[in-house]
Each structure stands twice: as C-alpha cells, then as structure tokens.
Amino acid sequence: MAYFTHRGCRLFYEEHGQGTPVLLIHGLGSSALDWELQIPALAAHYRVIALDVRGHGRSDKPRQRYRIADFADDAAALIDHLQLAPVHLVGISMGGMIGFQLGVDHPQLLRSLTVVNSAPEVKAKKPSDYLQIAKRWTLARVLSLDATARALARLLFPKPEQAELRRKVEERWPRNDKRAYLASLDAIIGWGVRERLALITCPTLVISADRDYTPIALKQAYVDELPDARLLVIKDSRHATPLDQPEHFNRSLLAFVREVENTAATSSKD
User: Fold this and answer.
1) Where does the pLDDT of residue 270 fall: very low under 50, low under 70, confident under 90, or very high at 90 and above?
2) Taking burial as the number of CB atoms within 10 A of a residue's CB, which of 12, 26, 91, 109 is the most buried?
3) Burial, 138: exposed, middle or buried (Cβ in 10 Å; 0-12, 13-18, 19+)?
C-alpha cells in the first residue's frame, strides 16, 4: 500500500504480484477494495496495481470540480510514477470511462483495455434520457449515503445467497465523502469521448452483464466503432459483475490478457 501526489492531490494505490502490469480502476463511490476477488487471481500471474481515484477511498478528496479527464490524468501520472507503461487497464463503470479517456488521450500507455459495464459517453439523446439523468442527480442529493447504500445493495445483489455482498455495500458506501461523491457524479453527466474511439487501437475487451443498467445492444454499437474490440456478455449478472460472477469474470479477463501477451510475444519474434 502506498501513496503518490499528483497536482497537489495525494492518491492511494496498492500493488500485488510481479510481471506485466495490470491497472485496476474502480467505479463511482467505490474503491480498490472492490477488486478483492480479482487481485489474488491476477497477482498470481501479473503485477497488479489498484488505484483509489481522487475523491474516493483512501485518496484525498479535494474540494473542487472533478472531471473524467482529471481522473485519467491521475491514472497516467501513476503509470509514469511507477514506470509501468504500457499497462493492461481494467475499469468498471466510471473506471471504464476513465479507461476510455486515457485511451483517447494517451493511447501509448495502454497494452490492452478492458471495460466493464460502462460506455464512452453519458449524454442524453432523448426525453427519457434527460428524465433518468435528472432522477439520478436529484436522488443522489436528497438521499443519505446510508439510504443509497441500502437501495444499491438490494439492486446489485438481490439474491438471498448474496447477503454478504449486500452487507459490504451497506458498510462501505457510507464511508464516501458525499461532496466528493456528488462531484464525481457530476463529472460523469454530459461526459463523452465516443467521437474519438478510433484513437484506441489496443486490443479491447468490453464486458457486459446481461442485466446491466444499459442494454447489450448499446455496448455492441460502440464495440463496432473501436478498431480492435470484442464484446463478452456474462449471464446472470448485474452492474457489479466482478463481484457477482467473479469466477467467470476472472477466467475471461485472464484469458484475454494472456492472448494479448502471447500475440505481442509472437509479433516481436517476426
């Protein structure tokens, strides 16, 4: 566990294992803790770095406006700080957005990109989109973090046997700094880099839960716009796929990273 400072913000990260670097970036309101079921599986083969994004977890929570571009710059600074480039980057939800932003701004930093239950833009296109965004924006401000945690736990993990996962959400979510959480939510709304996806030339794996918030067809549409991408659908899963389907997720991620590594090794011999 360690810290580094970028643009006056002290950022937390943890490292495990050795070898080719794999950088994990969590979602909104989360932290590196939520990769707990991935880190041991990945660290058996790779050097794993899990970042707490500014405003989250054990990182500083500066009182300022946040942008997805700022989060991506922090990730780029960590890659430079540890001399990791290029990395296999794995991001879920907001972490996937950060991955997209890093990919279009600094494509040379990525060996591969894995995006989980995310999108390259969060922009209203029709009246129902405006309604959904306004609803989420309002509820985030009206509800306490405890109330949000209870609702989120039931939404993400509705099965009786997922009681422990619900408990973790209810325990961890209220630890958020609400001002930083709202600033991060505001950074997402209206953000987008979809028009620049052609800049992301590294192999890309897009993972979608079959019961994610957004439809599979939406993911397939932007996968088709990426130069070297594929879509994997994981069944019986919701937005927190690495937690509700860890075995399938880990197996698929490891297979993808190994394939990218093997292809690079073969190319270097030619």
Assistant:
1) low
2) 91
3) exposed
3-state secondary structure at position 106: coil
Q: What residue has token string 């494509």?
A: 107
Overall pTM > 0.90? yes
Please report the domains of the chain, with CATH numbers, ordered by start residue: 2-121+193-269 (3.40.50.1820)
Strands of 229-234's sheet, edge to edge? 2-6, 9-16, 47-51, 21-25, 87-92, 110-116, 204-209, 229-234
183-198 pLDDT tens trace = 999 999 999 999 999 9
Residues 6+ apart with CB under 8 A from 1: 12, 13, 14
The sign of the torsion formed by the CA atoms of 93, 203, 42, 79 equals negative
Contact residues for 252 (Cβ-Cβ < 8 A; gap 6+): 205, 207, 232, 234
